[in-house]
Write a structure and sequence with these properties.
The complex is a heterodimer of chains A (468) and B (341). Chain A is mainly alpha-helical and 468 residues long. Chain A has one domain (7-233, 321-467). Chain A has helices at residues 7-46, 49-82, 85-119, 126-155, 173-177, 182-211, 215-250, 252-259, 292-298, 319-348, 356-364, 368-382, 404-435, 454-467, and strands at 160-162, 168-170, 265-266, 270-277, 282-289, 304-305, 387-389, 393-394. In chain A, strand 1 and strand 2 form a beta hairpin. The model of chain A is unreliable at 441-468 (pLDDT under 50). Chain B has 341 residues and is an all-alpha fold. Chain B has helices spanning 10-38, 45-55, 59-76, 78-87, 89-111, 116-144, 163-187, 190-221, 223-230, 234-237, 240-255, 263-283, 301-328; strands at residues 148-149, 152-153, 286-288, 292-293.
């Protein structure tokens, strides 16, 4: 029944599905852990109970998200073997230690201190609790370091040799770990994670303000989120550009696909819209801005950009996916920058917390980070095809000796399970958002945004004392 | 490129390290999977809440040992990983799906209200059951031997499905249930504890039965294993294992009829250790039984050395802070979901 299905394609779809599903959780928790650390630090520093209430609300959302991230991540550590065993055999010497270090330096740290972060309130001191939050946040970043190093190596392999047995052997660990695309990818991805979180937090803050709920908490959420949008979103454009130039140097075919460029051109235009056709080797319905592509990529109006036809057909990545995923990512990035600019203008007009259409806009931008992150991964991973390790190993040569049947059935099982789990998780997160931060009566006292009267702080400290 | 190859038998070091990691996984996730297996049989909802709370701070860390098992095998013995994973394709996937359903239940259950909480109770139970049963089947398939073709798995998609592996599957379910029950005795009091004590006494009988069955069938099915255990002088050297197992069983049987709260759990750990060592001896030195030894499937010495360098420092740290977390959450579990929330 599955004999006419291609196992390589099914295995690719399965990996793309499970990894894209998984990445949405770390993309959120990396940023959320760091943000929670900042919020808890503000609480310890100022004693302002609003920060504590915000922390306690978001740490529950963190717990749900982190749990889904963990269970979907365990799957990945086994999938290299189940679907890509030849890959595991051939690159194990090089990538194995990197993944090993991820487990040893990050996963245990996150998993162990998460318990204290979630359940340790009354069992450890406030300082120790804060330390646990910081450790979890550090763990998420260490994890990103190793997994992005391993992933980058697949794009820009370095520091290895091919043995006579066809296996890859490391020759220089520093070159393996700090391979050419790694620094760019790490910065780009961690920044993306921070922005993803910022737009979620900002979206929820915007929702509360729009509905007139938990206004004081919402101001802090939206305010902190917009600081990220104003300062970090434009930086991400710069990081993305640098990453793109790095890709041009090491994987020019990927850039050609991103640009939808078939012929090698001097003074290549930027295709705003096009419908790439892999078979006819051209674009339909092109709308082009002259010379802009050359300007961005070579910093010269008449610079030469290599087109896809420079590579044999079998060495070209699927153009349509790369081309459109790239436009989606960049488009969302631009909207993020625009949001930051709007926030800046409204801030100087002192209308950031009263402009209702802007709050609604922030609600609409809530999923922007997730979509941008996933489409960014589609650009880079599909753009690496047909190779699994760029110019070294072809994807089609590294699949397990497993028939299409089991892969198709397990793919279906993952889709159904993840669908159910995701729906339930989203439902409970929405419920937590609906419930909002747990406020105390004292909070209704106090004027807008200015310093809390000392009475409130004292009361809050007293209340905290009663809880213990 | 540095390498410790000249003065260390690296594959052997890694075999022991990964063996230890997998054993820690079996112990640690064993008790929380066991709690999941016993979950629906608990006498009341507050009992279930207590049981859940007793493991909620730990399950995530416990499951990380499974990631270390998989990741470590990939890093230190990539060829074994590349052959075993396709060999266990279906049971591994089913185990992972089970772990997903039980893992999310921890958070979802306390967020759910009314009838929908029941869904997550069952998700937790059946997820735990499925994951455990599949781990047992993987174990059974492993000790039965794996078909190899060159550097690939050479068997069929359903090689893992047979009566023996089904038996080891059920055996592991009873084993984890015993771990879960003795853990519950240690971490709860009152009704819940009394119930867990009763559970443990029943389960203990099944554990003994299945251990006997597995210990008998393994040498019968494989003449090398029979030779190993029953030839002289091996027979005398290996006696401590079965004797200690019996001693632990008897002590546990008696402890369950006293007020002891801690020792039953540690005696169960002892029983698991004896079994684990027994299986280790039976399959020595195979990592892909009975085709490839641990030296055949080892990663390049420089790869094993790099990871070993870090492991020497990191593993003690991990054990220390894992211990710290268990210490922070010492004492009896409450039935309230984190009272500070």
């Amino acid at each position: 029944m599955f004999s006419d299905l291609d196992p390589v394609f099914l295995a690719r779809v399965q990996f793309a599905f499970t990894v894209a599903y998984h990445i949405t959780f770390p993309a959120f928790t990396i940023g959320l852990a760091s943000w929670l650390a900042v919020v808890e630090w503000r609480w310890l520093k100022t004693g302002n109970p609003l920060y504590e209430q915000i922390y306690r609300m978001w740490v529950k959302i963190f717990a749900v998200t982190f749990g889904m991230g963990v269970v979907s991540g365990v799957v990945l550590s086994y999938q290299f073997g189940t679907n890509w065993s030849v890959f595991a055999d051939k690159v194990g010497n090089v990538l194995g230690p990197l993944l090993g270090y991820e487990v040893l330096t990050a996963f245990f740290l996150e998993a162990s201190f998460l318990g204290i972060m979630l359940f340790g309130w009354n069992r450890v001191s406030r300082k120790m609790h804060f330390a646990a939050t910081v450790i979890v946040a550090a763990g998420t970043l260490i994890s990103a370091f190793w997994i992005l190093s391993a992933n980058s190596w697949m794009h820009t392999p370095a520091g290895f040799r091919e043995g006579v047995d066809g296996l890859l052997y490391p020759t220089d660990w520093i070159q393996v770990i700090f391979n050419p695309s790694f620094p760019y990818r790490l910065v780009h991805m961690v920044t993306a994670a921070y922005l993803t979180t910022a737009f979620v937090v900002g979206g929820i803050g915007g929702y509360y303000l729009w509905r007139g709920l938990y206004v004081k908490h919402a101001r802090i959420m939206l305010g902190m989120a917009m600081i990220m949008a104003i300062f970090v979103a434009p930086l991400q454009l710069l990081f993305g550009d640098l990453h793109g130039l790095n890709t041009l140097k090491h994987q020019p075919a990927k850039v050609a696909a991103m640009e939808g460029l078939w012929e090698t051109e001097k003074g290549a235009g930027l295709r705003l819209f096009a419908w790439p056709d892999q078979i006819e080797e051209r674009n339909h319905f092109e709308i082009t801005i002259p010379k802009l592509s050359s300007l961005i990529l070579t910093h010269d109006l008449d610079g030469e950009v290599k087109g896809l036809k420079s590579w044999a057909r079998i060495d070209r990545p699927p153009v349509w996916v790369v081309f459109w995923a790239f436009r989606l990512m960049v488009g969302l990035g631009m909207l993020m920058i625009a949001t930051g600019l709007m926030a800046l203008v409204l801030h100087f007009k002192k209308q950031l917390f009263t402009t209702r259409w802007f709050h609604l806009w922030c609600v609409a931008m809530t999923p922007a980070g997730f979509v941008a992150v996933v489409s960014g991964w589609f650009v880079t991973e599909v753009g690496r095809q047909p190779f699994i390790v760029f110019n070294v190993l072809r994807t089609s040569d590294t699949i397990s000796p497993v028939a299409a049947g089991p892969i198709a059935i397990s793919l279906a099982a993952f889709v159904v399970t993840y669908g159910l789990v995701f729906t339930a998780g989203a439902y409970y997160i929405l419920k937590l958002i609906g419930k909002g931060p747990e406020t105390t009566e004292e909070d209704t006292y106090g004027s807008h945004g200015v310093k809390q009267p000392p009475l409130v702080t004292d009361l809050a400290a007293g209340r905290g004392g009663n809880d213990v | 490129m540095f390498s410790f190859e000249s003065f260390l038998d690296l594959p052997l070091v890694w075999y022991s390290l990964i063996g230890t990691a997998i054993f820690l996984y079996i112990l640690l996730d064993g008790f929380d999977l066991g709690v999941g297996i016993l979950f629906p049989f608990a006498p009341s909802d507050p009992c279930r809440d207590r049981m859940m709370n007793s493991i909620a701070p730990f399950w995530d860390g416990n499951e990380t040992w499974l990631v270390l098992g998989g990741g470590g095998l990939f890093a230190a013995f990539p060829l074994a990983y590349a052959i075993l994973m396709p060999a266990f394709y279906i049971p591994i996937i089913l185990m992972l799906l089970g772990l997903i359903f039980r893992g999310v239940a921890f958070e979802f259950r306390f967020k759910a209200t009314g009838k929908s909480r029941r869904i997550w109770d069952y998700s937790f139970h059946f997820g735990s059951l499925m994951a455990t049963f599949m781990q047992g089947m993987v174990l059974g398939t492993f000790v039965n031997g794996i078909a190899v073709d060159g550097r690939n798995f050479g068997g069929g998609a359903f090689d893992w499905l047979n009566a023996f592996s089904a038996m080891t599957g059920v055996a592991l379910v009873t084993g984890y249930a015993l771990l879960g029950a003795t853990w519950t005795i240690m971490k709860t009091e009152g009704d819940t504890q009394a119930w867990a004590r009763k559970c443990a006494s029943y389960v203990l009988i099944y554990v003994a039965l299945f251990m006997g069955l597995v210990s008998l069938t393994m040498p019968l099915m494989n003449s090398d294993i029979k030779e190993l255990w029953f030839s002289l002088p091996n027979f005398y050297f290996l006696q401590p294992m079965p004797i200690l197992s019996v001693v632990f069983f008897v002590m546990l049987w008696r402890d369950l009829r006293t007020e002891r709260e801690y020792r039953p759990f540690f005696l169960t750990l002892g029983i698991f250790l004896m079994n684990y060592i027994g299986i280790g001896i039976s399959t020595w030195p195979w990592l892909v039984p009975f085709k490839l030894t641990l030296w055949d499937v080892a990663a390049a010495p420089e790869s094993q050395s790099l990871l070993l360098l870090g492991t020497v420092f990191l593993l003690p740290c991990i054990l220390a802070y894992t211990g710290y977390c268990f210490w922070v959450f010492r004492g009896k579990a409450s039935h309230e979901h984190d009272p500070a929330y």
